[in-house]
């Protein structure tokens, strides 16, 4: 298992991208809109992991609600797993609450699922299914 990415909630990609370009010494991949999450995402590669800057595209976006409640900065941590369906079943058998009992589609068309932070020490954890092309 590895950390696939860390999701960072930002009010403005235009303001945040230049800061992370200086910090990381590289430019992000072209930003992408994930309609299902109502976010625009800018991805910086950091070694074998990534930092994803997330800007809401709608007031109903989870990122807009997070910022409206006073949240800023790190929003979620994402772990790469080989078989998402099997992993969700295993975690549920251990009593971990799932937000997504079946995988849905996230950035890059990947299968993802979120765990409920009340079961994971208050951290919102996303799982992404690792594919051979990653
Ligand atoms: Zn994510």
Strand content: 35-45%
Q: Tell me the major beta sheet.
A: 8 strands, mixed
Structural class: alpha+beta
Shape: globular
Assembly context of the chains = single chain
What's the overall average pLDDT, rounded? 94
> Which topology does CATH recognise?
2,3-Dihydroxybiphenyl 1,2-Dioxygenase, domain 1
Q: Which regions have little confidence, pLDDT < 50, spanning 5+ residues?
A: none
What does this molecule look like?
The chain is α+β, with helices and mostly antiparallel strands. It has a single domain (2-129), classed as 2,3-Dihydroxybiphenyl 1,2-Dioxygenase, domain 1 (Roll). The chain has helices at 13-24, 62-68, 84-93, and strands spanning 2-10, 32-34, 39-46, 49-56, 73-81, 104-105, 111-115, 125-129. The chain has an eight-stranded mixed beta sheet. The longest helix has 12 residues, at 13-24. The relative contact order is 0.19. Zinc ion binds next to β1 and β5.
Structural topology:
Blueprint: E1 2-10, H1 13-24, E2 32-34, E3 39-46, E4 49-56, H2 62-68, E5 73-81, H3 84-93, E6 104-105, E7 111-115, E8 125-129
Parallel strand pairs: 1-4, 5-8
Antiparallel strand pairs: 1-5, 2-3, 3-4, 6-7, 7-8
